[in-house]
Every structure is written in C-alpha cells, then in structure tokens.
C-alpha cells in the first residue's frame, strides 16, 4: 500500500509484490481526477489540461509498472495494470475523502472501466476518450496489413496474452525513428 502526498509533486506507491508505482500530483483542492496511464504515455500531451484542472482539482498521473519512473517488473497484463490503477485511485480517494473521476485514454479506457465497475466507492465516473478511427471493413480491398483478418486476429491474440508486448510491437513498427529508451 502507500499514500499520495499532496505536499509534493511526486510520490510512490509500493504494491504487494514490491513494485514501486511513480505518481505525480498537481493541485491542492477539490476532487481528485486520475488519468489512467496508457501504453504510450506522454505527460506533455496533457500539460495544458492538467494545469487548468489543477486550479480546482487534485490531478493525479502515474507511470505504469515497467515504464517511466516506476519499477521495471512484471507481470505486464491488463488485470495487474487495473489493480495498480485501483491502488492509485484508492490512495487519491482516501486523501480527498471522496471518490475520484477516472479519465481513460486509448487502452487505459479498459483499466479505468474495470476499476470503476468493480469499485464504484472509489470512482465516481470513468470518462473514456479515444477509439480506433477505422474498422476492418473500411480497409477491405486494400493492401494494408490491417485489412487481413488473420493479421488482426494474430494481433488480438497477442493482446490477450501479452498486452504490453503487443503494444510495444505496434509502437516499434509504426515509429522506426524511436530509440529503445523512448520506446520503453
């Protein structure tokens, strides 16, 4: 367990398996807003929104296990990631004395929804932003790899068994200019 300290900008939460989850907190008052980290988390993308929200909310962000300043220790699966998010939300809700709003982006929408569903006492709501902008049918007849049902099926199977690995493969394949440290 652990607690988020609002007197500082950074904090850590230690999970039962010893993994340290790094947090960052902005704002001193109001309800908590927790951004559920996603596979290609880049805090700078949200800087303006966080700054605005921090004027009357406590904004909590964190690094998924294996990324950023969190411990690089698995397992890396959806359920473990949801458990880590739940611990972050629990600490945030405990500090402010009420439930938090969860914001889920991309694959983190799955984590945010799982936590909100199983712990309505911690999450007043889950807002999910973003979805795939295309479907398999839209690519039908093209030469794109995503138009192949077998390619999509293999990727979905990989997502089911090794979520983070599948996301890393996708990120590497679509961003050959990125160095290993950027990918990590």
General form: globular
Order of helices and strands: EEEHEHEHEHHH
Residue fraction in strands: 15-25%
Taking all Cα atoms into account, the compactness measure Rg is 17 Å
Mean pLDDT: 81
Task: Tell me the structural class.
Answer: alpha/beta
> Spans with pLDDT under 50 lasting ≥5 residues?
1-8
Helix content: 25-40%
Oligomer status: single chain
**Euclidean distance between termini CA atoms:** 25 Å
Largest sheet: 6 strands, mixed
Cross-sheet strand order for the largest sheet? 1-2-4-3-5-6
Number of helices: 6
Structure explained in plain terms:
The protein is of the alpha/beta class and 184 residues long. It contains six helices and six strands, in the order E-E-E-H-E-H-E-H-E-H-H-H.
SSE order and pairing:
Elements: E1 10-14, E2 20-26, E3 32-36, H1 47-53, E4 58-62, H2 78-96, E5 100-105, H3 108-118, E6 123-129, H4 149-161, H5 163-174, H6 180-183
Parallel strand pairs: 3-4, 3-5, 5-6
Antiparallel strand pairs: 1-2, 2-4
Helix pairs in contact: 2-3, 4-5
